[in-house]
Structure formats: C-alpha cells, structure tokens
Design brief:
Helix content is 35%, strand content 17%. With 368 residues, the chain is an alpha/beta fold. It folds into 2 domains: 3-19 and 165-297, 3-Layer(aba) Sandwich (D-Maltodextrin-Binding Protein, domain 2); 84-163 and 299-363, Periplasmic binding protein-like II (D-Maltodextrin-Binding Protein, domain 2). The strands form 3 sheets. Strands 1, 2, 3, 4, 5, 13 and 14 form a 7-stranded mixed β-sheet that branches. Strands 9-8-10-7-11 form a 5-stranded mixed β-sheet. A two-stranded antiparallel sheet has the order 6-12. Strand 1, helix 2 and strand 2 (116-120) form a beta-alpha-beta unit. Helix 2 (94-112) runs antiparallel to helix 11 (326-334). It is globular and about 60 Å long. The two termini are 29 Å apart.
Length: 368
C-alpha cells in the first residue's frame, strides 16, 4: 500500500472513530466521563478476571398483559392464523439463542396478547432477507445488518441494546473507567494466544486470521477498516482468512490454534451468554487481547415498515417492561448478553452509517 493510500485509510478510520458514538433519544444512565483515547499500545499478557461459573437463581419473569395491548383481527400479523415472527441473527450458539429467543417471544406474547414465533437466521444476511420478504416482521439484528436492512428494505429501528460496559482485563482500554456501567456502545477486540508472538497488528502479516462473517460489525466490517488503515490488506497479507460464523467460534478457533488470531466483540472470553470459560476453562489465560477498536453503536430491535405501528409500540413497551423486571432481565441476559432495551429514534444509526460511507463502506451501494 502506498504512503498516500495508507494516510487516506488512516484519516477515514479516524473519521469513523470520531463518529461512532451515536446519541439516542431515550435516557441511559449517565456514564463516568472517559479519558481521551491514546495511541493503542501493545497488550500485556495478564490473565483476565475469572467470570462467574455459578448461574444465578432463576426468577420467574413478570409477563402481565399490557393495559394498552393491541387487538388484531384474523389474517393480521399477530393473530393465531398469522403469527408475528421474530428473527434472531446467529452470532453465537444457535441452541442458546433459540432457547433465550423463545423465552422472550413467550413473555411478549403474554404481555401483548399477540401470537409470536421465532426463527434463528442461517446467517446475518438470512435474517435481513427474512424481513425483506416479510417472513419475519421483527428483527434482533446486529449493527451492520441494521444498516443494510434500512438501506435495502427501509426497516425501522425501534430499540437499542444497553449493556454493562465490558473491558478486557490485561489490556489498557482508555474506557476502562466505564467498566460495569450501562452503555449503548461496545468495541471490537483482536484476540490471539498469549504465546503466539503476536503483540501488534503489524505482527499479523503472513498469519491465519479469523473473522466472524461479512455482515458482522465488530467481527468484520470495522476490523477491515482498522487493518487497512494500518497497512494490512486481509486479501493479500494474511496466509489464510477464515469466516468462523460466530463470535464464540472465532475465540474457539484461536484457542484451538486453527487461526493465529481473530476479531470478536469485547469481551468474548468472559461473556456470560457464551460461557466459553465453562468448556474452555483456561481460555482466560490462553487468549489475550492485543488491540481494541474505538466505540461502536450497539445492536437492537427493528420492525418492517409494513407492520402496524400499534403492534410495534406494543412490542417496544413489552421489552421495556421486561428490562425493568428482574425475571425479565434474566431472560434478556441469556440472549446476546442484553442488560436492557431502550427506545430510540429511527435516525439512531445515521451517524454511524455516514462514518462508514466516508471510510468507503456504503450500505446503500452494497445492497444494490
């Protein structure tokens, strides 16, 4: 890559970094002010804090019917003969997503009086197309898939995920002061083995590298921009590129040595929905983080534009109620490690989409 092109990519990446903190309409707990991000240093191989291995005591979810639950007629979405369908992206173990997703749908059904079914997409793109074909009316899409679905099918963003901020132990995250504080952003982490000899992005050249899949925000799209801004072309500079198909699968592939390094969200090693530490008990010491992205807006809930606004409002109200209920929180936590959902304006992702476009990734042109 020429010096001029490298400078261009670096400038584009900086514009992306500066634009990814998207402001939402609904209030979120005010975070501690984070310090300005310094240059990314090499990671020190320090074992992360062990994640809890004891599951919390199950609490029955409060799924009382909403006072303003909608009434639907036969043949309308949500009626027994035409159930609403929720599509979940397969960003992790399909069985766990199915179990948690079904529990959410069952609770929402009790709260709204609507008949609701679920599906887990065969891919992130599969969930987008299910909404485009109106086979699914509600989406739990990852961030980049939301942008593609907006561009191609004009889906309506209705809610965003809020999670307690996770920071990787053993890596100097400039936002470490926010650990455990609810935020509507997250980061991508580059993983390798502690004894791999990989400490910086420059060390990746000639290595086998694991991505999640092409529609993954933190597992492909943004990391590609980061790599190119640092003079690394994944198509030319890696020995081999593997699409692992899930964030947990990336971490497992690196752990097993199938990939020298890979990229996931922070922190897949200790995430309580994946629980990799239960199967791979030493994963916290075997795997280390050696690079972090800047802030990325979280995933959320979307509706197809053809869905009755009253039904949209009921689903939103139901998820807000679940977010405030201890039993409901447990159900949400089991799906994508969600702490709560908040209402957002439909323009919530516009700033991030614009930043990606400036960096040469335009969702509008990708879906034509």
């Amino acid at each position: 890559m020429s010096k001029a092109k490298r400078i261009l990519f670096l400038c584009l990446a900086i514009m992306l970094i500066a634009s990814v903190a998207v402001t939402a309409c609904a209030p979120v707990p005010t975070p501690t002010e984070a310090p300005a991000a310094p240059a990314q240093p090499a990671a020190t191989a320090v074992p992360p804090t062990k994640a809890p291995t004891v599951a919390p005591t199950p609490i029955p979810a409060k799924c009382d019917k909403l006072a303003d639950a909608p009434t639907v007629k036969a043949g309308e979405w949500g009626s027994p003969d035409k159930p609403l369908v929720i599509t979940y992206v397969p960003s992790g173990d399909t069985g766990k997503i199915t179990k948690a997703g079904t529990a959410i749908a069952d609770c929402l059904s009790k709260m709204t009086g609507l008949t609701i079914k679920i599906e887990v997409g065969t891919s992130m793109g599969g969930s987008i197309e299910a909404m485009g074909a109106q086979k699914a009316q509600i989406g739990f899409l990852n961030t980049f898939s939301v942008l593609l679905a907006i561009a191609k099918y004009q889906v309506i963003p209705g809610m965003a995920v809020v999670r307690k901020y996770a920071t990787p132990d053993g890596y100097p995250d400039p936002d470490a002061a926010l650990k455990g504080i609810p935020q509507d952003f997250y980061k991508a982490e580059f993983l390798t083995k502690t004894d791999s000899g990989i400490n910086t992005l420059a060390d990746l050249k000639g290595k086998t590298f694991c991505f999640v899949e092409p529609n993954s925000t933190s597992g492909y799209v943004v990391p590609n921009i980061i790599l190119k801004s640092n003079g690394i072309d994944p198509e030319k500079d890696f020995k081999n590129v593997v699409m692992a198909g899930g964030h947990d699968k990336v971490a497992i592939s690196v752990y097993k040595g199938d990939c020298d390094a890979g990229v996931t969200f922070v922190d897949t090693r200790t995430d309580t929905s994946y629980k990799l530490y239960e199967t791979y008990k030493d994963s916290g010491t075997v795997l280390k983080v050696f690079f972090l992205s800047e802030r990325l807006p979280n995933d959320g809930i979307q509706y197809i534009k053809q869905l009755d606004p009253k039904v949209q409002a009921a689903i939103t109200a139901g998820l807000v109620a679940m977010s405030a209920d201890p039993g409901g929180k447990q159900i949400l936590k089991a799906l994508y490690n969600v702490d709560l959902y908040k209402k957002i304006d439909p323009t919530y992702y516009d700033a991030f989409a614009a930043a990606l476009k400036k960096a040469g990734v335009d969702p509008v042109t990708l879906v034509k």
